[in-house]
Amino acid sequence: MVRTPYSKLDSDAFTRIRVILMTAIEADALRFSHMCGRMNGALRPELAQIRRLEQHQRTLVNWLNPADQTPLETSIAYEQVAIEVTAAVALAEPDAYAAATYRFGLLEDFDHMYRYSALMDRVEGKDANAIIQSYTDIMPGRATSVQHRHPYDDVRDHYDKDRAEFITKLHALTIVSGESQTHEYYLNVGPKFADPIARQLYAEIASVEEQHVTQFESLTDPRETWMEKWMLHKAMEVYNYWSCVESEEDPKIKRIWERSLDYKLGQLQHVAALFERYERRDASSILPDSLPDPIQYVSHREYIKQVLRAEQGLSAKRPDYVDRSQEHPRTVEYRQQLESEGSASDTIAADYNWTAGTELSAIPAGQVELPVTMADETIRRTL
Amino acid sequence: MKKQTAQGQGQNRTGIATHDSMAEDMMAAVAEFPPTSTGSSAGAGKVRVEYAQAVDPDELGYGSVPMPIALGRDSALLFDKLGERLAFERTGTRLYEAVIAKHEAFGSFPGGPNRAQLLEILNEEHRHFRMLEEVVEGLGGDPTAVTPAAVVAGTIGGGIVEVVTEARTTLLASLEAVLVAELADRAGWNTLIELARKAKLAKLVTQFEVAERREQEHVAKLQRWIAAGQRR
């Protein structure tokens, strides 16, 4: 389970993206399984057995991340996952409302990546593009400081389990897995930073990630039974490992995806048999004969810009996406309260334009200037 | 054992003497329950040796050195180290920015630095960074690329950034952290001078010698400020 990791410098960013997403999916498998076990005594031995495999698969994949990849670099990579995978999902999603939800979330994670990149540049003097490898633009999305909404306004309508297409279910489970991992990660590593602006930024973005988990989780149909959800999760795991096999160019990592896919096919078969035994209905009433097209692990630069131009000014009012001017007063009030002392995401990226080689590269040699009194610095939001 | 009180306020609880009676319990416990495996700490070393030897020779290090093909493999070390210095000086610029914030927050101390002196060093780090960008570009390389040696230096230096940006550390502690960086920096410039000399890049040797002298001055200043802060 503990192998030589990929190289932060030499491996393709999409290999890292796949490693991160598949770790998230295994984490969600474990999360689901434990919740299911709490509610279903009879399933406990079966859940425990499969969970042990998930535990070891998660370890195998997550341990591919190298130790020299810092928590901040990893955070930037997490956001790139959220951007590129969510963009691929938004484009492939047949349900218009679900697709709108993915676009909505995408613009917010896009902005997080920009804020973390500014943090990396301004605190560590490092260029985030060494991680992003030019596949994703580093620029503002929907500003993080306007992403804070009242909890009610993050709850979306769910798909209809009897009418939704199979891929719609797989997409929702995939994206909520990624968001859950990101949310947990920020809560874990945020306090590991010494710099108060970094601690603030992680706290702020982690709060939005909790909103995202709420949002994407609510796309799934709560009327699905535990067994149905378990089987769908297994199908989603199969689909994602298969997508990795289809796109991976690193032969060593590809072998891991192939092996993992084999395990998952076995798990799906086992859970499908349990489903049929407990629910007395055919697994084929839920699962199709073949898998949908794989997730496209490619750069979505133009698509993202197009979405940004059209939907940057959106907010949400309960299930609906509305112009920010139409927000519910509870959200306006919530945001005012949360940001009564300003927003770290505005502060760290004040006037920040990504520049190849960091913004220090754009300053003539030896002409860095700092205000005489930094405490007097005023941050103004331009929205 | 005597209880020790940390300098400043409060009661440090990390030492065994903090709770005398429990210390005895701790020792009694390990006497009653011996280790469950034999051997020594070299067991961890064995695992390190095995894992290190299992790494594919082509994949040793954090990655490859990005460099112009025309220069050939002999220049790999030079490029690796140029990338290291470049990243170091760039991070160093940000490091002094954080030291200046510390200076503003707490003020200086008798014999300590003033803001202008810190800003001057900051800009010298920046000049060095920009100079190295030009050097790498001049040799046909990409100054935005991260080299394996830059990762090594960045990993080592990570703790320095943590000390300086931490709200609870003093200006003096920050200067001590930066001194570690400056000592490493000076050694790094000496390496670059020798590598440039070996590669017969005379102009670079001169440029690097000037930079190394500046770094010598930084070390001397920091040592002086720290001594004054410690009233030595």
Distance between the termini of chain A: 48 Å
Largest interface: A-B, 37 and 47 residues
Q: Assembly type of the shown chains? A: heterodimer
The level of helicity of chain A is 55-70%
Number of domains of chain A: 1
What does it look like?
The complex is a heterodimer of chains A (383) and B (232). Chain A is an all-alpha fold and 383 residues long. Chain A has helices spanning 13-39, 44-62, 71-92, 96-124, 129-132, 166-189, 196-217, 226-247, 251-279, 301-311, 329-338, 344-348; strands at residues 314-317, 320-323. Chain A starts with 12 loop residues before the first helix and ends in a 35-residue tail after the last helix. The mean pLDDT of chain A is 97. Chain B contains seven helices and no strands. In chain B, α3 (76-106) packs antiparallel against α4 (115-138), α3 (76-106) runs parallel beside α5 and α5 packs antiparallel against α6. Classes of the chains: A mainly alpha (383), B mainly alpha (232). Chain A binds chain B through residues 4, 7-10, 66, 68, 70, 122-127, 129-130, 193-196, 198, 356-358, 360-361, 363-368, 370, 372-375, and chain B through 51, 54-56, 59, 62-64, 87, 90-95, 97-98, 100-101, 104, 115, 119, 122-124, 126-127, 129-131, 133, 143-148, 151, 154-155, 158, 161-163, 165-167.
